[in-house]
TrEMBL record:
This is diguanylate cyclase. Residues 207-342 form the GGDEF domain. It comes from Pararhizobium polonicum. PROSITE patterns: GGDEF. One of its GO terms (molecular function) is diguanylate cyclase activity. The lineage of its organism: Bacteria, Pseudomonadati, Pseudomonadota, Alphaproteobacteria, Hyphomicrobiales. Its EC number is 2.7.7.65. Transmembrane segments: none annotated.
Length: 357
């Protein structure tokens, strides 16, 4: 059997070549963010993104590409989305400032009229009634205008505040989306990297935690046989299974097409292995409906490699150990769970350099 890791490497190389060929054919600028978009589209991780990219047609503009990248919250397009939000914020603040300055000018004009009226009363207390009535009428009209302008100003301020609130929500949505896998809603590779680093904030493991790297056995074959849409529906069925299988303070992320990572807190190696076995059994209970096969379903399984935070020198070492344990499971050609050990590390030392992530 060809090693899964070698297959994945060859597959990624083929995708990268296809990305370069596709971009060259469509005349797309070789920006890193454009490579990211077409890589994600061709990988099939996000079928909606794949469809949007396919709909671009020949010779798409950079603006069209950026609209898709921002829509699907791709990391490379975050700066563009942030620039748009900053521009909208600047426009809202400028409009609010202009309205505020206008309101201040009108308030000052009204105050000047009122001061003039009071000054005339003080300087000529026996002024004729007709003069007083004329001044009072002008002052009454000015009060009406002032009240009307103040109401309009308050409405404009409320509208601007609402716009700024929406922009703040957009920023928060963008922040959350940049940390989430669009298909499953689970944390993504970026969030996983931050979580893994946090396990060793002070240079030492924060406690008895375990990292479990998982592949969903059969998912790639399912996608190849029945299409990306079936694989997407399957992933959406597996995501809640993963969430329900771990404690509240544990962590689960999707790293790739069929790759996931779990961080279990306050566990021993035996506990971590038992949790992984329980998750695998839950996945094997999931029935996957196949298109055009009413009475036929398919099941999947998991292969899991586990490493313990206390026995690793840091986050990179922890990831490497879990990856080596997972590789050992695939070499056995049978789904299952393995915890990293010195024996596993010794067997793979020639293939993997120490502390390689």
């Amino acid at each position: 059997m060809t090693d899964k890791f070698q297959n994945d490497g060859a597959q990624n190389a083929a995708i990268l070549l296809k990305v370069a060929q596709t971009m060259a054919k469509l005349g797309i600028a070789p920006f890193p963010r454009n490579y990211e978009l077409f890589y994600e589209a061709l990988c099939g991780h996000n079928p909606a993104l794949t469809r949007d990219a396919a709909a671009l047609g020949n010779q798409p503009t950079q603006s069209q590409i950026e609209q898709i990248g921002v829509k699907h919250h791709l990391t490379g397009f975050t700066a563009i989305a942030a620039d748009a939000i900053r521009a909208d914020t600047a426009r809202s603040i400028a409009a609010m400032s202009q309205t505020l300055n206008g309101g201040i000018a009108k308030t000052e004009a009204f105050a000047a009229l009122l001061r003039d009226f009071i000054g005339r009363l003080e300087s000529d207390p026996v002024a004729g009634m007709s003069d007083f009535a004329d001044d009072a009428g002008r002052l009454r009209d000015a009060v009406s205008v002032f009240e009307r302008e103040e109401r309009a100003f308050a409405a404009t301020m409320n509208e601007t505040a609402a716009q700024l609130g929406n922009l703040r929500n957009d920023i928060e949505t963008m922040r959350k989306a940049s940390m989430r896998d669009p298909v499953t809603g689970l944390a993504n590779r970026i969030a996983f990297a931050a979580k893994l680093a946090a396990l060793y904030d002070d240079g030492n493991a924060c406690g008895p935690a375990a990292l479990a790297l998982v592949t969903v056995d059969g998912l790639r074959a399912l996608a190849e046989s029945h299409g990306a849409a079936v694989a997407e529906r399957t992933l959406k069925k597996l995501a809640p299974v993963f969430r329900k299988s771990v404690k509240k303070n544990d962590f689960v992320a999707r790293l790739g097409t069929d790759e996931f990572a779990f961080v279990f807190h306050d566990v021993s190696a035996e506990n971590a292995e038992a949790i992984a076995q329980r998750i695998r059994a839950s996945v094997e209970d999931v029935q996957i409906a196949l298109p055009n096969r009413t009475f036929t379903t398919q099941t999947l399984s998991l292969s899991t490699g586990i490493a313990m935070a206390l026995t690793a020198s840091g986050s990179a070492d922890l990831f490497t150990q879990a990856e080596l344990a997972l590789r050992a499971v695939h070499v056995r050609e049978k789904p299952g769970v393995l915890v990293f050990s010195a024996a596993i590390g010794g067997r793979t030392a020639k293939t993997y350099a120490p502390h390689a992530a």
